[in-house]
């Protein structure tokens, strides 16, 4: 191992082609995890890396593994397992960028929801690096369309996330179907016992690389929040955009659909805005970010995944339009501003039912977020008038020579119409501002009491025993930890008869609804349907997307709020069916006594036969 950490990529034993790509991407100094992991992987060691998202770990494993890839061999030499399709796409794109000067190199992402026939054709053409989600990689291994007999290395990216999503058994199955003589790198933000067990079982004398997470957000970022209900968000955002003196802003929302809808609404209100999300082609994403850098775009509406890695000096503000369920996501979001010692501002919208999430963010960041005053109509009016006066002053100072023609024209008009210069100026000001009046009347937005009712902070629901056990990694099998947020039960029209597993449901919801898997609650599988608990208050556009456009195992899930009884009549699929009544052609119903605790329901007692 290196006695001292390298301070530049040139000090690392990377190939010239990779060093050229790194230089073109603007990388100058390796991040701490890159400086520690790259030399170890180049030496052939297995790696056990503990690092948060956003520390540069993709380059930490991609750069050294690419150095050993042979483009002349059209067979998988590196396999990367990722928990979500968004991350799989992101990692695959990173490999492609780093290998842009390696002729004949191909990387292939494999994930559910993509056409299987297209994946089969691409696998036949050959790829040196495969990046996939566990379920789809297993499908191809079973089909024998993915052959790993020339595999040199396997990477488990965000292993703790794969554990939370229920993929850890799939990961172990894949590891058992890879060559024994291969290099393994496991990266995880935390190291719960099940992940440690995988490392002990499948890694060969691994070297540990640990990067301590930042415990709090930067002191150079001013953080404020506004309590506002969902249907008033757009009006509240518009007021803030009117009066905040910002250069460029990133607005974070939860779903890909919301990025497009909000960007279109802001454009209609006269702001220069564009959307960026995981469904966009890479070249379009790059052009949009370049517009933000050049100043031809002022507002970027993004999801967490799409905004990863964005470093634009102009970004002075970050707006959390939808509060994140995860405090780590909040830290990552506001880190898009205040970079390299610059100052920045972060604003957070919080609905009354989301106060618990605000408290959780404050605990995690160890900072109190101050409540901001929502701009009033008078404030917006004064700001528009000040802006108009500044435009007039700037035009008089900078365009005086070009104004001579208009001066003569209006002087002639003043004489012919017998009107004063002030009257003419008033008419011109009205013409200029009639589409955006200087005097505004804004709709009322309800005000909420700061921090809610007294004692909210101390009366939060305590974690139950199951949730505490899940933190230690030894939660009961088949039961997900219960998140500390208000939950709502939803019904999915897929069940055991469709071959569905809990991991399929978690993966689909995490990918399509952009909900962190730790906030996906208890899942119950029945024969013809399933139920799942999710955070309350799901945006209508997200629910509509989940209802109409999401499939699991080829079956539309038709997700909707579950309006059925608390305990469905149909038994969970994993239980045994009642004994069959052959004469009736169906199943006998066991007599169901009333639940324990009902004083009106005497429980039948077994009587001993006489003579005993």
Automatic annotation (TrEMBL):
Sorted UniProt keywords: ATP-binding, Cytoplasm, Helicase, Hydrolase, Nucleotide-binding, RNA-binding, Stress response
CC terms in the record's Gene Ontology section: cytosol; ribosome
EC number: 3.6.4.13
Transit peptide keyword on record: no
Keyword Cytoplasm in annotation: yes
Residue ranges constituting the Helicase ATP-binding domain according to the UniProt record: 38-209
Compositional bias of kind Basic and acidic residues: 447-490, 565-603
Domain Helicase C-terminal stretches: 233-380
Class in the EC hierarchy, top level: hydrolase
Signal peptide limits: none
Domain DEAD-box RNA helicase Q: 7-35
GO molecular function, one term: ATP hydrolysis activity
Localization, UniProt: Cytoplasm
SUPFAM superfamilies: P-loop containing nucleoside triphosphate hydrolases
Short sequence motif Q motif: positions: 7-35
Region annotated Disordered, chain positions: 442-490, 562-612
Classification via InterPro entries: CsdA_RRM, DbpA/CsdA_RNA-bd_dom, DEAD/DEAH_box_helicase_dom, DEAD/DEAH_RhlB, DEAD_box_RNA_helicases, DeaD_dimer, DEAD_helicase_DeaD, Helicase_ATP-bd
Catalytic activity of the protein: ATP + H2O = ADP + phosphate + H(+)
Protein's GO biological process: cellular response to cold; ribosomal large subunit assembly; RNA catabolic process
Pfam families registered for this protein in UniProt: DbpA, DEAD, DeaD_dimer, Helicase_C
Family under the similarity heading: Belongs to the DEAD box helicase family. DeaD/CsdA subfamily.
Function text: DEAD-box RNA helicase involved in various cellular processes at low temperature, including ribosome biogenesis, mRNA degradation and translation initiation.
HAMAP family cross-referenced by the UniProt entry: DEAD_helicase_DeaD
Protein name as it appears in the record: ATP-dependent RNA helicase DeaD
The species this protein was found in: Simiduia agarivorans (strain DSM 21679 / JCM 13881 / BCRC 17597 / SA1)
């Amino acid at each position: 191992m290196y006695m001292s950490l390298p301070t530049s990529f040139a000090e690392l034993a990377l190939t010239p082609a990779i060093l050229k790509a790194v230089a073109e991407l603007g990388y100058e100094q390796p991040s701490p995890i890159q400086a520690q992991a790259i030399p170890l992987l180049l030496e052939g060691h297995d790696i056990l890396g503990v690092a948060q998202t956003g520390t540069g770990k993709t380059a930490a494993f991609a750069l050294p593994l690419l150095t050993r890839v042979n483009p002349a061999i059209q067979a998988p030499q590196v396999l990367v397992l990722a928990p979500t399709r968004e991350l799989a796409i992101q990692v695959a794109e990173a490999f492609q960028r780093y290998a842009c000067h390696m002729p004949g190199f191909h990387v292939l992402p494999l994930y559910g929801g993509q056409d299987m026939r297209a994946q089969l054709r691409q696998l036949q053409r050959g790829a040196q690096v495969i990046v996939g989600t566990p379920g789809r990689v297993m499908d191809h291994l079973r089909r024998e369309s993915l052959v790993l007999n020339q595999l040199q290395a396997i990477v488990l990216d965000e292993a703790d996330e794969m554990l939370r999503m229920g993929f850890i058994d799939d990961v172990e199955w894949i590891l058992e179907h890879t060559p024994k003589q291969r290099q393994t790198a496991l990266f995880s933000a935390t190291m719960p016992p099940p992940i440690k067990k995988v490392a002990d079982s499948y890694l060969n004398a691994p070297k540990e690389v640990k990067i301590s997470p930042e415990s709090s957000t930067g002191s150079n970022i001013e953080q404020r929040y506004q309590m506002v209900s969902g249907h008033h968000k757009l009006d509240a955002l518009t007021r803030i955009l009117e009066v905040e003196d910002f250069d460029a802003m990133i607005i974070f929302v939860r779903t890909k659909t919301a990025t497009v809808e909000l960007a279109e609404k802001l454009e209609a209100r006269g702001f220069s805005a564009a959307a960026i999300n995981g469904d966009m082609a890479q070249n379009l994403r790059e052009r949009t970010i370049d517009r933000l850098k050049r100043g031809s775009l002022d507002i970027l509406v993004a999801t967490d995944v799409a905004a990863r890695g964005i470093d634009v000096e102009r970004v002075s503000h970050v707006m959390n339009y939808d509060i994140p369920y995860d405090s780590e996501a909040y830290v990552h979001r506001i880190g898009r501003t205040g970079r390299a010692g610059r100052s920045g501002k972060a604003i957070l919208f919080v609905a009354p039912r989301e106060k618990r999430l605000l408290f959780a963010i404050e605990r995690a960041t160890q900072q109190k977020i101050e409540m901001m005053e929502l701009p009033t109509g008078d404030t917006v009016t004064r700001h528009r008038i000040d802006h108009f006066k500044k435009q007039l002053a700037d035009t008089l100072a900078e365009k005086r020579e070009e104004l001579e023609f208009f001066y003569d024209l209006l002087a002639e008009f003043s004489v012919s119409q017998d009107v004063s210069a002030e009257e003419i100026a008033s008419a011109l000001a009205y013409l200029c501002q009639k589409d955006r009046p200087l005097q505004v009347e804004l709709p009322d937005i309800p005000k909420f009491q700061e921090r809610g009712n007294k004692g909210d902070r101390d009366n939060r629901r305590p974690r139950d025993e199951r949730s505490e056990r899940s933190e230690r990694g030894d939660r009961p099998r088949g039961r997900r930890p219960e998140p500390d947020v208000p939950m709502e039960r939803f019904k999915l029209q897929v069940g055991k008869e469709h071959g569905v597993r809990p991991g399929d449901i978690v993966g689909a919801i995490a990918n399509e609804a952009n909900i962190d898997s730790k906030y996906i609650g208890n899942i119950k599988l029945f024969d013809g349907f399933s139920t799942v608990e999710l955070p309350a208050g799901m945006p209508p556009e997200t629910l509509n997307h989940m209802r109409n456009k999401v499939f699991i195992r080829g079956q539309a899930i038709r997700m909707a709020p579950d309006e059925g009884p608390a305990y469905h009549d149909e038994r969970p699929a994993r239980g045994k069916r009642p004994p069959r009544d052959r004469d009736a052609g169906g199943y006998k119903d066991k007599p169901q006594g009333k639940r324990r605790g009902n004083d009106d329901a005497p429980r039948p007692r077994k009587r001993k036969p006489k003579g005993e």
